[in-house]
Write a structure and sequence with these properties.
The protein is an alpha+beta fold and 304 residues long. The protein has seven helices and 22 strands. It starts with a strand and ends with a helix.
């Protein structure tokens, strides 16, 4: 049976959905609302606790101001939002193109430390197609950033995949490598549930720096030496590398469009991911923006 090619349409949320929680670093309680946005808006954070004319912050690499233990963005008025990667990862992984992310505080709620609660918010209200084709960033040639042993790279590839490696001295983590399918179904199943993680010995130092004030065993996997402190253990044997992939999906969303290419990273993190996005945007030979035709059968199988 012959299937005709179609273009994917942009999507937004059918209606608004909200959650309340504390920021993992600030410890500040905030309400976050995912709201529908017009076609070609992208992801825009709106600080509802400041003057409306100063409230918008576009989720773009050019607006990143910090990458220490999370990604933060700010606008020209000095208003910022911290730890944006998990909600951006959820929106991107679910195939959302346009959304307003309203928040009445300085940091996105950490919730359970994964993207799953944001996935559930999106699933609760559902998605609406918009009268505009989806745009993608197609990787045309490899582009890479390095910092010592840390490497992050984008390569030409059909679709979107992630090849992520980490290596920690702790026996609880060790050397982990995994390759992930970046389609909606693959993201929801294999990446979204993975929680952020940290080491107990770092907590006091982080809190002295004004970080990790809202962190707990309820919103992070905590490692003490070679042991997992969480009573329920891990959600996956390799939950740590899966969370690195989750973070990467959120950070790569700062390119402005979904990526058609392969992400390869070793010992990478937010700083490397953002540096990669900025390097990509600065090299117009490395990519092009396309409206991608897809086969209807593949379109349905991918859950898009």
């Amino acid at each position: 049976m012959k299937h005709e090619n179609i273009c994917q349409l942009q999507k937004t949320l059918k209606k608004s959905a909200s959650c309340i929680g504390v920021g993992v670093h600030t410890g500040v309680r905030a309400t976050l609302t995912l709201a529908p946005a017009p076609a070609d808006t992208g992801f825009v954070f709106i600080r509802t606790d400041v003057l409306p004319r100063e409230s918008r912050i576009s989720a773009l690499g050019s607006n990143v101001t910090a990458t220490q233990l999370g990604t933060s963005i700010a606008n020209e008025f000095g208003h910022s939002v911290a730890t944006i990667e998990h909600v951006l990862s959820a929106l991107t992984g679910m195939g959302v193109d346009n959304a307003f992310i309203e928040i009445d505080g300085p940091e996105v709620p950490i919730l359970d430390g994964s993207a799953e609660p944001f996935i559930e918010l999106i699933q609760t209200v559902g998605l609406a197609s918009q009268d505009a084709p989806r745009n993608f960033i197609e990787i045309l040639e490899p582009i890479e950033v390095k910092d010592g042993a840390k490497i992050a790279r984008l390569e030409p590839s059909e679709g979107f995949t992630l090849d992520v490696s980490i290596d920690f001295d702790s026996e609880a983590i060790g050397l982990q490598r995994a390759v992930f399918d970046g389609t909606k179904n693959g993201f929801v199943r294999d990446i979204a549930p993975a929680r952020t993680f940290g080491f107990l010995h770092q907590v006091e130092a982080l809190r002295a720096m004004g970080l990790s004030r809202g962190g707990s065993l309820d919103n992070a996997v905590v490692i003490d030496g070679d042991k997992i402190m969480n009573e329920g253990g891990l959600r996956f044997d390799d939950e740590f590398v899966r969370h690195k992939a989750l973070d990467a999906v959120g950070d790569l969303a700062l390119a402005g469009y979904p990526i058609l290419g392969k992400y390869v990273a070793s010992q990478s993190g937010h700083a490397m991911n953002v540096a990669l996005v900025k390097a990509l945007m600065a090299n117009q030979k490395a990519y092009r923006v396309v409206t991608q035709p897809v086969n209807t059968r593949l379109f349905a199988a991918a859950g898009l």
